[in-house]
Write a structure and sequence with these properties.
The chain is of the alpha+beta class. The protein is 20% helix and 24% strand.
Length: 323
């Protein structure tokens, strides 16, 4: 229900008329687009527009089974196997090859639908300021035939807009007159949403639209500063037949991967983000807007949310202060 509400809200809040031609003419990319050259992407904190797609068909069956079982153990095992496949394809300048002890996967989701149809890079990254990291997006099942090849996801890399240097996640609002606004993407931490830049039209953003025409079993790896959006077209009135929100059958797995400064090292965390308040509960925080250093020892501690690790860290701190 939450994702359905998010999808509906984003579609109502954006006017896609002026971007539909660009969507229709977007380059189609898949694992085959990167098959003829080694593409190792830079996932350091300040990199932008870094992405690649690889084949990982061995995880297709486990993810299909996971949709039904919702097994925490199986999810952890599947994510570890996926990380072992993708880590050779990412790097941080100055670091040796990354291994499982260097990373913390967080914000795992396995859900149907095209649920975030607005241009953005993920708000979750503001919880971990200045962190290196990347996103994984795995195509488990394609949209149904009625979607007519639509309903996947767009990437929207651009070298000329200032989002490349934005220190915090951003999203783009599409206005009826064709203009666009770039907003700080903090999911309610700043309300009303704080505008950062206004463009007279979408062309001024100089976006290179790319559509993920991925097959089942392919996985997208992208640095955190890659603008992207779910494909809204199946839900728009012009689509015949129009597919109601909540009825698109696309199944994708996504997870974000935080890279520790060194293996097993603590990571800085910002406790003022609404996601941490939602997941750990307001009463868990002494100073909701402060920075903390969180020592997460277990690799899967943040996979299904931030509650366990953050709350445990603050409980330890409180005990020390009382002692």
């Amino acid at each position: 229900m939450y994702l359905n509400a998010v999808t509906t809200g984003n579609i109502v809040g954006n006017n896609y008329a002026h971007v539909l031609p660009a969507m229709q003419n977007a380059a189609q990319i898949s694992a085959a687009s990167f098959a003829h050259h080694e593409h190792n992407i830079d996932v350091s904190a300040n990199s932008a527009n870094q992405f690649t797609i690889i084949n990982a068909p061995g995880l297709l069956k486990p993810l299909q089974e996971l949709e039904l079982s919702r097994s925490v153990v199986a999810a952890c095992q599947t994510i570890d196997h996926l990380l072992e496949m993708v880590l050779p394809h990412v790097h941080v300048p100055g670091r040796t090859r990354l291994g499982l002890n260097d990373v913390l996967p967080f914000g795992f989701a396995l859900a149907r639908g095209a649920y975030f149809p607005d241009l953005h890079w993920d708000t979750d990254w503001s919880i971990f300021p200045e962190a290196d990291g990347f996103n994984l997006w795995y195509m488990v099942e394609l949209p149904q035939k009625a979607a007519k090849g639509e309903g996947s996801m767009f990437l929207a890399p651009s070298e000329t807009t200032s989002h490349v240097s934005d220190p915090q996640p951003v999203q783009v609002q599409l206005h009826p007159d064709g203009s666009t606004s770039k907003l700080l993407h903090l999911m309610g931490a700043v309300n009303p949403k704080l505008p950062l830049h206004h463009f007279a039209n979408i062309e001024d953003m100089k976006i290179r639209w790319q559509y993920l025409n991925m097959s089942r079993g392919e996985v997208l790896l992208m640095g955190k500063r890659v603008m992207h959006m779910s494909d809204p077209r199946p839900h728009l009135p012009a689509h015949k037949p129009k597919i109601r929100v909540g009825k698109l059958r696309r199944l994708a797995m996504n997870v974000r991967v935080l890279i520790r400064p060194t293996p097993y090292a603590p990571v800085p965390v910002w406790l003022g983000h609404p996601y941490t308040r939602m997941l750990a509960g307001d009463k868990s925080f002494r100073e909701p807007q402060s920075f903390e250093v969180m020592n997460v020892t277990h690799r899967h501690a943040l996979l299904f949310g931030y509650k366990t690790a953050v709350a445990a860290h603050l409980a330890r701190d409180a005990k020390k202060s009382r002692g």
